[in-house]
Amino acid sequence: xxxxxxxxLAIESSCDDTSVAILENDRVLSNIIASQNVHKEYGGVVPxxxxxxxxxxxxxxxxxxxRKAEISKEELHAVAFTEGPGLLGSLxxxxxxxxxxxxxxxxxxxxxxxxxxxxxxxxxNDNEAIPEYPFLCLTVSGGHTMIVKVDSxxxxxxxxxxxxxxxxxxxxxxxxxxxxxYPGGPLIDQYSKKGNADAFKFPHPKVKDLDxxxxxxxxSVLYFLKKEVENDPQFIDKHLHDICASVQKTxxxxxMKNLVKSAKQTGISHVAIAGGVxxxxxxxxxxxxxxxEKNWKVYIPKFEYCTDNAxxxxxxGYFKYLNQEFVDQSITPKARMEF
Length: 339
Ligand code: KG4
Ligand code: ZN
Fold this sequence. Notes:
- The chain has about 350 residues and is α/β, with parallel strands linked by helices.
- The protein contains 9 helices and 10 strands.
- The chain starts with 6 loop residues before the first strand and ends in a 17-residue tail after the last helix.
- The model has no long low-confidence stretch (mean pLDDT about 95).
- The site of zinc ion has 6 residues, from helix 3.
């Protein structure tokens, strides 16, 4: 790693969190996240409200991040921002701010892929362990679910991905069916702790190779609950913990099954998880348990680097800075990105 001190300001605004981080090389000096509560009552992120909230949050969050890092704007070497994928209106706020700041300060601008940043968040220096290449990364967020073979910060290959809903989306949609607020993933995790994971059985999907599917599970939970609630309107309240634990176990089992398969197929025994769902307590304990059985070296990101944050944009931004991979002012954010 370079001995020069490089200061990068990173902006993440792909969904419903406005986040700004300052990194000194691979070390996080500040990582500020302003979460948007406006979406809770709608049961999901409302894009128009998200971009308006980013617009309100961006300046105070940048100022707080700089203040907390005790860095002045003039000391920055580059500005990194999320180029995509994500909600276009939200991305535009972060991208426009990043472009103006870089232009005003006369420093390079770095466009970062949000999903690759989730994976590379493992290289932030205060994680428990830093992966060795190549490693496999189960990347599980609200919009994506995939198994990635990671050869370097730049070279990555998708080995399998979801053909419909993402794992986080499955958590959130099933939570919504149960009448829980958005985002339901962390709540299902919390309620599962007091539940019996074997109380109810839900089906596993039939998909080829290393791909995933979660929409069938969502439909099966929907019909199951509909039937039970017809017989007993209090069914969900009475069995909330058991339903959550059974759903959570099914989702994590589906994820782990393919991760085991991919490690076997590739012969790679360094295995990581990343993305919002990697905050899930069962996934974290299962990868440890199974990893021990299979003799894997397991990497779990620090809790604060699992869900969306700008520190992960900053670390990938830092590697791109070292490679001199800059973008110019004509850059536009993208709702979808080629991986
Ligand atoms: O990576 P992320 O913060 O945003 C996207 O890039 O999508 O992931 C958000 C997703 C949501 O679906 C949320 O419900 C899920 O991660 N999530 C969890 C947990 N914490 C966040 N799902 C299950 N258990 C959790 N503890
Ligand atoms: Zn994310």
